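Q: Okay, next protein. This is UDP-glucose 6-dehydrogenase from Peribacillus butanolivorans. I've checked the sequence twice, so it should be correct. Can you predict the 3D structure?
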Amino acid sequence: MKNITIVGTGHVGLVTGVTLAEIGHQVVCYDINENDIALMKAGISPFYEPELTDLLKKNLNKGQLFFTGDPKLALVDAEIIYIAVGTPTAENGSVDLSYIKEAAKTIAENITKQEVIVVTKSTVPVGTNKLIQQVIVTNLTNEVNVNIVSNPEFLREGSAIYDTFSADRIVIGSDCEKAASIIEEIHRPFGITIFITDLLSAEMIKYSSNAFLATKISFINEIANLCEKVGANIEEVAHGMGLDFRIGTQFLKAGIGFGGSCFPKDTRGLIQQATEAGQSLEILEAVIKVNKQQKYSLMNKAKQRFGNLKDKKIAILGLAFKPNTNDVRESIAIDIASELTMQGALVTAYDPLALEEAKQILGEKIQYALSIEEAITNTDMVFIATDWDEFKDFPLEKYEMLMKHPIIFDGKNSYSLDEISEYNIEYYSVGRPFLN
Ligand code: NAD
């Protein structure tokens, strides 16, 4: 059992803290957001994540988990410190390391134990862990021996707890063998394959993994667009491709492209790193370009169908960047909603969880509905932008009953063509034949 402190208890940090407490460690979670700290102290997660609240409450009650906004209290007894602060894109396109540097400084000023290991969970450009060590060493107020470990995070929002206990691998990178083996011990109870490597390679593994997954998405979306032109069905194609184990079935789902808190910023971040290193990443540049075009593919279909979207009443189903989360960071649905309003459309959106978060970005530009029924009633067309189960389970006859003339632009291929063909619905999806 180790005294562990998490610095930055957002989506990654809180899940890390709660799950490390669950496997028996004593965990202190520290964040600069006092409002969120107050919520977490009361057993409330500031964001939605399945299974998180139960584990949070359970470990708070057991006394394994503690929350504070006081850095001194958080760090005075810490032996192992995980950094999980944000690393957004800066205005100049590079990775904004200001939160990382601030966290490193706070750690340096408050640690007191003789030996401390600082573990970076945040996604950071190659070389950043060395910078973290430098910032800590230059700002130390006590005599502490600090070792650095990179432990990039691979969880997916919406299944973060499941992913933490069932990940494919845990990556531990360090130039200090002893520190790496201590962190390996901490993670061993998860029962997951642990890959130990050097610091720089661990940092690169995270970026290149996300870049590869993004590549799969843009690849399948381009093939989907071609399928539409030549009459093939992307779902048949992806299934047939995926049966080859060298290709695999995962991440071959065509749609409206990738959004969210990681893929867009991490693909940009890797390109920026390559540019600084004097290399171009041409495949990744193309991945991002294809993704930008794919975002508006549904809207282009709607424009082709209607000529012009001015004053058209449009329902958008889904605002979160993916199902089972209320996160709208770089959500494609938000961009679509915004663009539709620029075209003069009258947009009403519904999302099971992310309405409040979306309102903070879109404000009064669109209307918000509290149910699918309310959103689609008397609209000219429906856009499906997030693959929530609630949309997949929605009875199709209701589109017939509630819309003027049922027209769906489905960016998530939510319904099977066989199902749709039983109804009087004009149906446009991605990479599959159009149904009328
Ligand atoms: P987040 O915005 O949800 O959380 C970051 C937290 O850090 C916030 O609560 C913020 O208040 C806090 N913070 C900022 N500066 C601080 C400081 N100096 N001291 C203490 N707390 C501070 O971000 P996130 O989604 O959890 O992402 C964190 C990192 O993990 C990023 O680098 C991200 O790329 C990476 N990551 C995220 C995911 C994901 O699905 N969200 C998955 C894998 C990796």
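A: Here is a summary of the prediction. The radius of gyration is 23 Å. The chain is about 45% helix and 15% strand.
Q: Noted. On to the next one.
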